[in-house]
Design a protein that fits this description.
Chain lengths: ~140, ~140, ~140
């Protein structure tokens, strides 16, 4: 599998393992020292895959989530380094019925370690977010 | 065209021919003995492309449908066999105005026959489904 | 980067630069003589990249937009010519709160000029459009 195919599959696993709550599989898409920046989406900057996993399972462990990624712009800059920008859409449905529906872009870097591509950093920028409260129409 | 490109195009034709109701084109993406398993989505297991086509045109022939597929995880295991997992989203709008909006994953196998990839089996799992009745808000 | 990868990245830039209103970047994805046909979506046929850019910034310069593209069916017919069909979904949110949400397909041609693929023509067909007025539920 060439690098572009492998990078697309990596992001496919990121989305699928997160939304199906396969947390062990989700952990494996990240470099140990991954930097996740969701400060543009009301969040913070988190360093470390284990820290991010703890953060995420706390926030969405009981939430139905659907994350989709589109039309990546990938650039492989060396045998072990690549960058990518992905359009994204996400939906969160909390147990009380409240919902978040958002749109934006992931700006990412990847590293190849022992033959496998991993997410090294990810920064989320937003185009728009809709929030609907639990009793909303 | 390499196998990964051909498999992505195959699934693109699947979605486009279904949603534009090009049923002759839709038939051609399937192996004759395809197994379609939508039991995880309130349906059943259907064997055979002609049987599936009859089932589907009966169910959605008069329904506006939009099906989208995302971030496939493809694996080509031999010269004539491959597997893929696709994230998906679908919308159905019935003539009476009722709507279904769903999210999930297709888990598929493919076979290459006479130089062309075909869908050999497809199983749909769901993350979530919203149904809105005809007089819904 | 091979032609298929380059064509996907081109369309990725088209969507991203439009939705982030990077109009200089948006201009660079088009051939000077591009033909844009949105007559199937209540619009018209526009010829010329500069004319199209002026049209578009007038129409959506102050509108939040989200455009996503899916499952392209790409065919590279020569060293400098290609075609593609993309499934699409778009959302427009006007300053007054009114919204358009649509689905369809782009039918496109591409040309390679000085080593870079450009959009040569694009025709939008629609599966469905929902319009919600400013005071809608």
């Amino acid at each position: 599998m060439n690098d572009h195919e492998a990078l697309r599959s990596l992001k496919g696993r990121y989305f699928r393992t997160m939304d199906t709550k396969d947390w062990a599989g989700f952990r494996r898409v990240f470099h140990d020292d991954v930097v996740i920046d969701v400060s543009g989406s009301g969040g913070e900057v988190i360093t470390g895959a284990d820290t991010f996993l703890a953060f995420l399972t706390d926030r969405i462990g009981e939430v139905i989530t659907v994350h989709h990624g589109h039309t990546p712009e990938l650039e492989v800059s060396s045998a072990t380094e690549a960058t990518g920008i992905w359009a994204m859409e996400d939906r969160l449905i909390w147990p009380d019925g409240s919902r978040l529906h958002g749109f934006g872009h992931y700006h990412e870097t990847y590293v190849k370690v022992d033959g496998s591509w991993l997410i090294r950093s990810s920064r989320l920028t937003r185009l728009h977010m809709d929030f609907r409260p639990a009793n909303g129409s």
